[in-house]
């Protein structure tokens, strides 16, 4: 048992009247004690559940991310020369269960035009046990789960797209996954994962999906504490960074500058003739069939969603001057087969 961790538990678990938040350094230390398994299972479960109830502060989340940055895998991007900043797409690790995800297609579209993309996650995970990104990539023929971290680094350098796979690349974090099922709720780890950048530099573009408005405020405050000033927040499908077609997309944009500027964007899909019902996730097999059709330039219910998301991110990442141009470019890239050829080059 860790007596130090016990003191952290006492501090945050004493109730609304006497409980106190951890400092950033204390939170970083608590995260380290959990990752290194120096805290006992009882202590770890209690810590995660207390934080679920009280909600972590930006300082606490920043501390946890400090430890992820210290102990976790780091892709070396400092020496890489790309025309655009690396974009890290943050998607809930417990996957999707109701709506069809297009994050994979978005990543391929961006990589096709030279925007480097980093994804991260694991296998099907509590509490949703939805379809994880790694399974979708496997269905398209790319098995990121087989790559070492060095091979993932080479994949980024060669293709401009890669995946950090939790079970192989960050086993210390992977061993905390069973607690999600045992406590029956998403722990604070699920929030910090949406902001985590497994890269060697803070000079990246982080995209974080969310469901509840208070989470967006946590993102903003936490990322700024960690000196990340280039980020996008998206009230997306099932908390992902996929824009919905059935409603106005609520997006936050923070631009890197000497005085980082926060902007609010309400994106109406009907303004670009891209509105419609959100595409349901009928099965993984059906999703992969639809994705292959989109990559072949064939129209199906998934195509408008892929164009909508691809076009938005082409604009947001600086490839296109305006949204209309972004949507037109995304459609052209898909219909011309260029995105399919990008996938083929990754498979080689």
TrEMBL record:
One term of GO molecular function: anthranilate phosphoribosyltransferase activity
Entry-linked Pfam families: Glycos_trans_3N, Glycos_transf_3
Residues annotated as transmembrane: none
Superkingdom, natural source: Bacteria
Single GO biological process annotation from the record: L-tryptophan biosynthetic process
Keyword Protein biosynthesis: no
Record's keyword terms, sorted: Amino-acid biosynthesis, Aromatic amino acid biosynthesis, Glycosyltransferase, Transferase
Residues covered by the Glycosyl transferase family 3 N-terminal domain: 6-71
GO cellular component: cytosol
Domain Glycosyl transferase family: 97-338
InterPro entries from the UniProt entry: Anthranilate_Pribosyl_Tfrase, Glycosyl_Trfase_fam3, Glycosyl_Trfase_fam3_N_dom, Glycosyl_Trfase_fam3_N_dom_sf, Nuc_phospho_transferase
PANTHER family: ANTHRANILATE PHOSPHORIBOSYLTRANSFERASE, SLL1634 PROTEIN
NCBIfam families for this protein: PRK07394.1
Annotated protein name in UniProt: Anthranilate phosphoribosyltransferase
Organism: Crocosphaera chwakensis CCY0110
